[in-house]
């Protein structure tokens, strides 16, 4: 899987899963365009990549704004000449009683998590369709798209919507040789991994909690030219948790 000179855009790339994705693509030789609202974190990640001999550019982006997304794609194309891969990773949580969620809060999470996927994919695809080999889009969903805890309606709705828009976009963009897939992470620890308990790890079939690199490697698989037969899918990366039967004693 060769990503040399490929241009990869990662939203929400300043921290956590997005940062892990950006770092791995950079390691594989890609040009990285990092988008995030957190200017300090995004700039630091770009600096880290460049100091390690990679090629990275940070563009401050509010994915809720169409104008910001249009500018992000224009900047990436002007800087590197093409757009090959888009990872729609930016997102936020909304965990609050449905009786207390305001319309403004609801619209904020919808626009951040779901509308941004449509806008980002649309704008990136305008450039990808010019490529001889097309392009690849990966949308970050969640196992919460198919299972829930209380008070998670907004987050669940956006992640379920991401699964649906993924196969719809896969159909619409197939004419232009653009693959579109989703990844549904389970528990991916982005904080202090060493602080996790044995119980945390043992509840997974994999016997460990996930790490950002687990999702980054899944992105590599879904965006490699060799795997362009894979499109429209939801790849669950959760250590087996959504396949585990749980009974109370």
TrEMBL record:
EC numbers on record: 1.1.1.47
Example GO biological process: bile acid metabolic process
InterPro entries: NAD(P)-bd_dom_sf, Sc_DH/Rdtase_CS, SDR_fam
Keyword Oxidoreductase: yes
The entry's keywords: Oxidoreductase
Keyword RNA-binding applies: no
MF-aspect GO terms: glucose 1-dehydrogenase [NAD(P)+] activity
One Pfam family hit: adh_short_C2
Gene3D superfamilies: NAD(P)-binding Rossmann-like Domain
PANTHER family noted in UniProt: DEHYDROGENASES, SHORT CHAIN, ESTRADIOL 17-BETA-DEHYDROGENASE 8-RELATED
Family: Belongs to the short-chain dehydrogenases/reductases (SDR) family.
Protein name: Glucose 1-dehydrogenase
């Amino acid at each position: 899987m060769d990503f040399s000179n490929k241009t990869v855009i990662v939203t929400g790339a300043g921290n956590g899963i997005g940062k892990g994705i950006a770092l791995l693509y950079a390691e594989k030789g890609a040009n990285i365009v990092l988008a995030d609202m957190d200017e300090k974190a995004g700039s630091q990640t770009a600096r880290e990549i460049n100091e390690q001999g990679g090629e990275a550019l940070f563009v401050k982006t509010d994915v809720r704004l169409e104008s910001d997304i249009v500018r992000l794609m224009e900047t990436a194309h002007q800087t590197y000449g093409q757009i090959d891969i888009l990872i729609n990773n930016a997102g936020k949580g909304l965990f609050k009683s449905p009786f207390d969620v305001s319309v403004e809060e609801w619209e904020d999470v919808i626009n951040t998590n779901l509308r941004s996927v449509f806008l980002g994919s649309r704008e990136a695809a305008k450039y990808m369709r010019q490529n001889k080999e097309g392009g690849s889009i990966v949308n970050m969903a969640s196992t919460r798209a198919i299972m829930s805890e209380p008070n998670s309606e907004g987050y669940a709705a956006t992640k379920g919507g991401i699964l649906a828009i993924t196969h719809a976009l896969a159909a619409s963009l197939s004419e232009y040789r653009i693959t579109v897939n989703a990844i549904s992470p389970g528990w991916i620890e982005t904080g202090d991994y060493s602080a996790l308990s044995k119980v945390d790890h043992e509840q997974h079939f994999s016997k460990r909690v996930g790490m950002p690199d687990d999702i980054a490697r899944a992105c590599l698989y879904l965006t490699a030219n060799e795997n362009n037969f894979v499109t429209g899918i939801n790849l669950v990366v959760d250590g087996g948790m959504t396949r585990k039967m749980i009974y109370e004693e």
